[in-house]
Every structure is written in structure tokens, then in C-alpha cells.
Amino acid sequence: MGMNQTPASERVHIGFFGRRNAGKSSIINAVTGQDLAIVSDVMGTTTDPVYKTMELLPLGPVMVIDTPGIDDEGELGALRVKKSYQVLNKTDIGVLVIDSTVGIGPQEEALVRRFREKGIPFVVVYNKCDLLPGGQHSAAGNSPAGISEHPALSSTVISGGAALSPADSAEHSIYVSAARNIHIQELKELIATLKPEDSHRYPLIGDLMSPGDLIVLVVPIDKAAPKGRLILPQQQTIRDILDHGGLSLVVRDTELKDALTNLRSGGITPRLVVTDSQVFARVSQDTPTHIPLTSFSILFARYKGDLGTAVQGAAALDQVQDGDKILIAEGCTHHRQCDDIGTHKIPGWIRQYTGKNPEFVFTSGTEFPDDVSGYRLVVHCGGCMLNEREMKYRTACCRDQGVPITNYGILIAQVTGILRRSLEPFPDILKQLS
């Protein structure tokens, strides 16, 4: 990922859903103005969700997701439908594509119910309007945003009172033709009106500092850091410090002690030291106790999810017994190394801290299980590659099923005995520990 691109996790995620051959892929290609999705007359061409980052005006940076048909059949088909439904956990705006010559069926009803349950704003797109009797597209062209007054279609109502009729929810439905480029611009504008507000309760770091403050960021350069790059949480933190008028000094863990000594001799006290969790113990030793210390992953736990829940989750380590199942969930699917933090270091630290031998299960990327009830504890990465909706969904999954969830950085702070110190910048959370 280039330094000049909006991170995928910060983009508005637009999920396109519908039955096979409703024209989802054609609609995506028409809306984005580029051939991103495979278009074919064969039913069910899209077999896995396809993700594509792009700029979509007037919305800005988005992640477009093309999903398998929600009516796919057979054992493999059921798996594909499940994958489509999992995409809902990260969808900020839903687009339901319906073949207007076929109309609404039970699959669409079920999907709309799910949109509503999850509070996802959505638009219903009646595609292939040029094939409707009576030249539907010309009639629709006279009404606002292509919403038709066609008598046969203006009363499309889903059973059970959940209406999708243009009369009932005009702002949510639109007639288009991807093949003939009818009302595609109006569709883009309609999608843009559904853009979610920035829902982050806190900035990443900006509320912990004042303009002109110096923040020291400790970044170990190890085998996992690609040449010439900083990893995403570090980039985003630097950007947020800049946005709030602060100064950042980025050092390796091996240079931190000298850097702090030099600052002190110049009469400068950093407002905060933020470290990569993997070198927490060393950084804690090298940072005088009057300088507050925290980690990138603790900042991200607060920014994306629920820091309080993650801190309570770490306390569950004290109850771990032999044979308990612990899920270690990685948000991205980066190349694993033999001493990779998730698969190697964290299990080692947990065994050492608890003196027990639990069973570890690993997932990465999108494969977070809906049912976590069999686990004693879930340990999640910082989630820098996942959007806020997905992180909140995963946290809620655990909370609803009574399973503690924590993240890498908080767990490392707990096992190295410096959790209390690393939470000093957050007095309200610290209170929960006492």
C-alpha cells in the first residue's frame, strides 16, 4: 500500500448483493466506470467476495465488494451464500441489485431484514429496467432519481410489512439499466447520500495531546517490516499527530534511551511515548516513569472498538486451564514468519504467564467464526486492516456469547506486568482495574 493512499480500513465499504444474474457485476462496472467485476451469462460467476479499493466520486475513497449470488445452490453454493452474508459485517452501505423483470423473492426479503437488523443503510437497485414492458426506462426518466411511477412496480411490497416500494421508501430504490447506462449517475449520487458519519468516539491520539506537544514513537525495525516502509498503525498515528498540530519523533527501540537523554538535556519532556507492543518491556525500562507510555495497539483498541472490553479480556488469562481453547485472530493475511507474533510469540507468552497448556486455534483475514462459545478467550490483533464496523461486530460476537476478547498489545502489556502503566493516559479505563 502506498503512503499516499487511504488505508482500506478507513474507506467506506460498499457491498453489492443480489441473486445470480441480477446483474451485480454489471452494476458495479457501470458505477465504477471500470471493469472490476467478472461479467458473464453463466450463473454464479462470482464465487468469492471480490474487494477493490478505488475513488468513487462524490463519495471519495471506497472499498467496493462484489459478492456471490444469495440464491446459490448445493453444498458449495450454501458456502458461497454464507460468505456473502459475512461481508455484511464490514458493509457500511448495502446495494441490493434486483432483476426488475423477475422482482423480489424470499432471498431479497431475508437480506433486507439483515440490513435493518445490522443498521446498514441500503439502496435497492432494480436493474434491467430497459427490458420492462412499456419502455420502463423512458417513464422512469421523468421522475426524480429514476424512481418509477410505473403502476405494476410502484407497489412492490415485501411481505410482513417491510416495504421496498418506491412510494414507501423512495429515497432507497431506483430503476436503472447497467447495459444502457440509464440512471447510473443518479445511483452514484444516491449511494453517496448514505455515507455514514465518522463514528469514531475518539481520535487515534489527538485528544491525548495539545498542539506543539512532542510524541515519541518507538518502532522496532525487524524482519516483518518491509524495506522502505512503516507499518500501517505507525503511518496513521503520525498522520493524526500532524492533524492535531503535534511533533513526532520516530526512533527504534535501540535508540530510545539516548533520544530521551538528549531531549532531557535540551529541557524537552515528551507528552507521550507510544511503542510497538513487541518491545514493550524494554521500552518501559528505558522510559522514565514521569513520561506516560502506551502502545499502538492500545490506541487502536480505543479507536476501533472498545478498550474497556479488551482490558477486561486480558484479566481472563488468570482463569485459563490446561486444554482450554484460545482463538488467536489475525485481521490481515500477511505472510507468516516462523517467529510470527500471532502464531508463535503470543502462545509462548500465554503458556509462560499461565503455567498452563491451552489449545490454540488460529484464524486470519475474513475467517472470524460466528460461534465463539467454545473458546475460553479470543485474542485479536490490533485490527489495522479491518474497518471499525467489522471490529465492533467481532467484539459484539464475543460479548453476546460471554467470551472475553482482548488484543495483542493489551495481552503483551498484561503478561509483561506493565498493563497498569500503559493505561495511565486513560484514567477512566484504569479505574476498572483497581
Description:
The chain is an alpha/beta fold. It is 33% helix and 17% strand. It is built from 15 helices and 14 strands. The protein has a six-stranded mixed sheet with strand order 2-3-1-4-5-6, sandwiched between helices. β5, α4 and β6 form a beta-alpha-beta unit. The longest helix is centred in the first third of the chain and has 14 residues.
Q: What is the count of β-strands?
A: 14
Q: Main beta sheet: strand number and arrangement?
A: 6 strands, mixed
Class derived from helix and strand content: alpha/beta
Strand content: 15-25%
Distance between the termini: 42 Å
User: How helix-rich are the residues, as a percent range?
Assistant: 25-40%
Order of helix and strand elements from N to C terminus? EHEEHEHEHEHEHEHEHEHHEHEEHEHHH
The global form is globular
Spatial extent as radius of gyration = 25 Å
Strand order of the largest sheet: 2-3-1-4-5-6
Q: Specify the number of helices.
A: 15
**Nearest-integer average pLDDT:** 78
What kind of oligomer do you see?
single chain
Uncertain residue segments? 136-171, 335-339
Compact description:
This protein has 434 residues and is of the alpha/beta class. It has helices spanning 24-32, 74-87, 106-117, 136-140, 184-193, 232-243, 256-265, 280-286, 296-304, 307-315, 341-354, 388-400, 408-415, 419-422, 427-433, and strands spanning 12-18, 50-56, 60-66, 93-99, 122-127, 173-175, 214-218, 247-251, 272-275, 293-295, 325-330, 359-364, 377-380, 405-407. The chain is built from 15 helices and 14 strands.
